[in-house]
Amino acid sequence: MGNVDGLQLADCKLVYFTLGVNCIIILLFFKEFKLTTFDQGFSRSLGISPTIYNYLLMTLVSATAIAAFRAVGVLMVLSFLTGPSLTARFLTDRFKPMIFISIGIGVFCSFTGVALSRHLLTVYGIALSTGGLVVCLIVLVFGLGLLTRRLKNDITI
Questions:
Q1: Over the range 41-57, which residues count as b (16 or more CB within 10 Å of their CB) and which as e?
Q2: Distance CA 19, CA 34 (A)
Q3: Residue range of the domain that includes 68
Q4: How much is the pTM?
Q5: What is the DSSP string of 16-69?
Q6: Among the three residues 72, 95, 130, which one is the final residue of a domain in this structure?
Q7: Which of 10, 42, 72, 97 has the CB geometry, 3.0–4.6 Å to 76, for a possible disulfide?
Q8: Which portions of the chain are predicted below pLDDT 50?
Q9: CA distance 41 to 132
Q10: Phi/psi class of residue 49: alpha, beta or left (left: φ > 0; alpha: ψ in -120 to 50)?
């Protein structure tokens, strides 16, 4: 089921290996991924096969999901796959800033959730699930992003 509080060394090695492979492949093929994802017709006219890059991207996502399921569990994986990216989409319409905002939201929620869990346990003796706190923070940040988007649209209309 995964437990963020009880990560084993083997799980950490698997996650870091997956991270390394993802970073290398994304850095090598970023332009191709962007082109084949957003404009398949143009990529075909340039001789770039969208099918190959779509399968490569799906393989990366699958491998990442498997490693993450083993390490932290289904709930956290699903919340990290959807929450930060949707929140970043509320905040910007440009692709590169969206990626960095999404990463920032994920890192912020991770560190804040772990720190809050440790603080509540140490100071108040309240043992809350670290994964549950992280997921709740992602939902809270999503709500704030949604509210920001609504306020931005109400002001411009």
A1: eebeeeebebeebeeeb
A2: 19
A3: 1-72
A4: 0.86
A5: HHHHHHHHHHHHHHHHHHHHHHH-HHHHHHTT--HHHHHHHHHHHHHHHHHHHH
A6: 72
A7: 72
A8: 1
A9: 43
A10: beta
Residue 73, phi-psi category: left (phi > 0), alpha (psi -120 to 50), beta (remainder):
left
Q: Residue 121 contacts by C-beta under 8 Å, 6 or more apart in sequence?
A: 127, 128
User: Tens of pLDDT along 30-68?
Assistant: 999 999 999 999 999 999 999 999 999 999 999 999 999
124 and 59: one domain?
A: no
pLDDT at 157: 54
DSSP 34-46: HHHHH-HHHHHHT
What is the rounded CA–CA span in Å between residue 150 and residue 142?
Answer: 12
The domain total for the chain is 2
Q: Say what angle helices 95-119 and 74-91 make with each other, to 10 degrees.
A: 130
What is each CA distance from 98 to 23, 65, 86, 94, 108, in whole angstroms? 17, 21, 9, 6, 15
